[in-house]
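input
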Amino acid sequence: AEVQGATQAAQCELESYKSGDSRDSSNKSLKERLAEAKTDLTAKKGEVKASDLQIKHLKKELTEAKKVAKKKDSENSKLKKELEKAESAVKSAETKIGSLDFDEKKRTKLADALQKEEGEAQKWHERVQKLQAQLSALDFQFKNPESGFDRSRVKGVVAKLLRVKDVSSNSALEVIAGGKLYQVVVDTADCAKALLEKGQLRNRVTIIPLDKISSRTLSQDKIKAAKQQVGDKAKPAISLVGYESELANAMKYVFGNAFVCKDAETAKTVTYSKMIGAHCATLDGDFYDPAGTLSGGSSKSSPSILSRLHSLTEAEKKFQTHQSNVVQLRGQVKALDSASKQYTKCKQELDLKVHSLSLLKKKIDASECTQLMNQVATLEESLEQAQATHETALEKQTSLEKSVKQLEKEVSLFGKEQKQLIKMTEDKVKKCVSNEKKEKEAMEKANQALQEVTVEIESSAADQKRLAEQIEQADATIAELNAEVESAEDEVALKKAAYEELQMSLDEKQKELSKCDKQSAQITTEMDDIQAEISNIGMEKKKLEHKLSKLEKHCQEASDTVASLLKKHPWIKSEKQYFGMPGTDYDWESQDPEETLEQLAKAEAAHNAMAKKINKKVMNMFDKAESEYNQLTEKKRIVMNDKESIEKVIAELDEKKRETLEKTWIKVNKDFGSIFSTLLPGTTARLVPPEGETFMDGLEVRVAFGDVWKESLSELSGGQRSLLALSLILALLLFKPAPIYILDEVDAALDLSHTQNIGRMIKAHFPHSQFIVVSLKEGMFNNANVLFRTKFVDGISCVSRTGSKPDQRQVKKKKAVPALGNKENQPVNV
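output
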């Protein structure tokens, strides 16, 4: 714009020179321009005087402010020294932390990895324990049969000594081995004998001595023949298991004489081949015997023993892997713990020093000296601006004075040098035109820059407004910060003293923590031992449960024994009232209560000490065992109640039995005496209990002839004893009579008189029963209602019937039937 104006002014000046009044672009003559220049010069001189007065005033204020600031400079220098000291302390703390070989992120990652590995190790440990519990039947436990016994001589159970090479053949190998999987391998027969005699084995076992066992293996001819017939579908069982070389004889004994086949067809081919004829087992568990038998069918729902052993081996490997990782990570974490403690200590020191530095900076910013220094800087800046304005005004005044002189000179020389001025002005116009083109190009560039500057100015204005608001807020908080700084200094002093005390306490705690770490390691070892002990306790629990069932049986037997003892020893009932009474022979409370309380206190202290060392999961297991125990206790209570009910019923049944036996005894005793008196007149017989006992303990047979009682039945003759026995049998039968009886020659050894007495006795005592009596004596015939006679007539067996009534039936003849042992003319008395 100035260049364009200069061009227009030069053109106007050229036209004015040509017109004769020397007008410029503003259409003003030289005289008018001279008057304006003089007016501007006068105004500019006034500005110079005003700026000179402002400079003097600012210098005076600056001098006074510097004097006041100099007085406060000692306080400010002290604060600056403290600030430099604090900054130096922060830098040294940061350098100390940087020199430490510690990475907090690495420590966190290691801790997370350790926690994860511990979880995995615990999971696989529980899996191993579960599988070990399922395979408890494979645990061979024994005690040393002699002092200094080398336990390595006992190799172990067969199932644990082998390694299955192909998992798919587990079922086949288990079928082939059968019960041999549970047999125990030892080195010599002497060792086996010592174990059986003095090893206190809990179960019956079969032992395989390596020095005596005879190995059975398939011949190479059979193996080649099998390969030729079925190829690789059949393999010797011994080739599918791995084992130590010293166990070769035992493994050949178990697996040496059988093939494992892929399918049933292959097994049939190998088993029933004349060239092979060996035992075979399929992968599904079917077993083929050359003798013609076949075992198989549905497979087991549960995994086989070898599969469980394989799972146990895998679980133990994974547990050992995770456990080694845990040990390694614990070592790394422990190695970083010492550096971590030092890092934490240095970090706390750095935080305290940084906090102190920030408080000191706030104090310095809010101090009076700093405010005075800021005021001095502001005054110096204002003074510099005023001086720059004064110099600019002086330069403008000098320029105006030159313009006035030039205009005055031009006015005086205008008439003389008009042509020369026109030429000079034309040159000036040309120059201004060229300058105008250059200025336009520069103007375009300046416009672009102006737009950018405009945007910056607008953002600067917003920032200026925001900063003004922050300055106002800062001024308001300076006073508060001054008060806070003073209280913070007091607090820092207190915190510093407290920090020193806490640091001392922290050192002591760190020492205690190192002790606790050692104890923790020891506790971890003890926990592992406890876990092993818990697994053993689980095994003992199962054994105790089995033992408990036996003890319950023994308890029942003991109850029966107690009942029999009460019957056998009557004194127990009379002495029972003294049981538990002090001063008697039955004083149960012989222990001292104080000693018992001391033992209780010791037990509680030991319990509390162990509670910190025992794994929490043990409590869950204990709660489970306790609940099971409570269930068993409840079942026992129910059983005991049932026992009482049963004993009550038994007592009632015993009473009824006693009453029934007493009634039976009285009835049978009466009939026994009556029947015997009928069979043998002049005698008496009865059933009496032994001397000093009751009829429940047993009965004796006593016989009297007249008034004389016999001491023993041996004093009687054979016939008398026969009559006595017959009388007792008939008396028992008379207690509950039957509708029919059959007697076969009961009178064979008796006299005729006694035979007649038997017939009269049957009629007298059994009026409602029918008797079929086989006899050869007339005394019996006379009392019969119907008489059947048999005899041989001309080789024919004839039976004749004779009744006691007159209308006797005729004899019926039948064809003779040979009968061995029949007695001729033997009547059948009915």
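quick obs: DSSP finds 19 helices and 19 strands in the chain.
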